[in-house]
# Entry
Amino acid sequence: MNKKTTQFLTYTALLLLGMALFWRCLHNLDFKEFWTDIRSARYFWMLLNLICLAISLYFRALRWNILLGTMGYKTKGRTTYGAILIAYLANIIVPRLGDVVRCSVLSKKSNIPFNKSLGTVISEFVIDLAMLFIMGVAVMLFQWDIFDTYIINGSGGNWKNKILVITALAVIVVVAIIAVIIIIKKNKKIAELWDGFVTGVKSVLTMNKKGLFIFYTVMIWLFYIIMTWLPFYMMNETSHLGITEATTLVVFVSLGAILPVPGNIGIYHSISDYLLNHFYLVNTSAAKAFVIINHASQMLFYILTGGVTYLFMFVFQREKTHYEQSEGNREQDS
# Structure
């Protein structure tokens, strides 16, 4: 079986998994009540959600600029922002393709070597995983009574059990990271990418703007949390939920997104629905309506912003350049 066939079968299997989870999420649903919740939602809060999403992605572009600048490459904020918007559009179609796409965009627009920019992207991934771990520990500690019911039945407020679970999670994360590094190092085909990764990690450790880098990282995740919290006010059934609950959704949905399912379909729905319905006791119809609205609006945002950005950066600009060159040739001929 060749590589392309394997990739196709993997993609198909993951897509089918996502669709199965999506179907399971909506299975046995009272669609009349569900449709009532969809129609009665206050969509102004979803608009604020998308504004926060746009701001978060801009902070992500600014943070990326710092990493690139540390390696001696300069690019404009609008270029990296555009590359990120196109990348999120690509991720809807083929998961993880966005990382390759945004580095390719930067290579074409700013002449930055692909492997170097990919190294910074991998470095960002490691940093974001660290942020997720910190946030995950925080939400567990703040909501231990809830997690105790689902993770360590009967432990109550025993701090020894809390420390045991947190330590176990930390060990799992560290072992997973070490295993990935060993596998990458032994694979000669991606040795060049590994060099780019090492360069990217070094850029984080040696950067001059560490404070600004940390600030941008915090702002990225803060706006992710805010954009999850604000839509709670769309519906009466979720309006009592706050920042802690929003952070919990962000952590678990982000971890679920590591599984490369196209458009995060099914994964996002199942995790969010389970948390709202079982952790926070939101009724089934309202929980599913909230999840559907949230996911659909974000997908629409990525499609529109990514599509428009691609047109401006590669289609309209190319036509403009071709027109300017044609006009220049005409002036020379005359």
Q: What stands out?
A: The first helix runs from residue 3 to 26. The chain has a mean pLDDT of 80. Residues 173 and 179 are 10 Å apart (CA to CA).
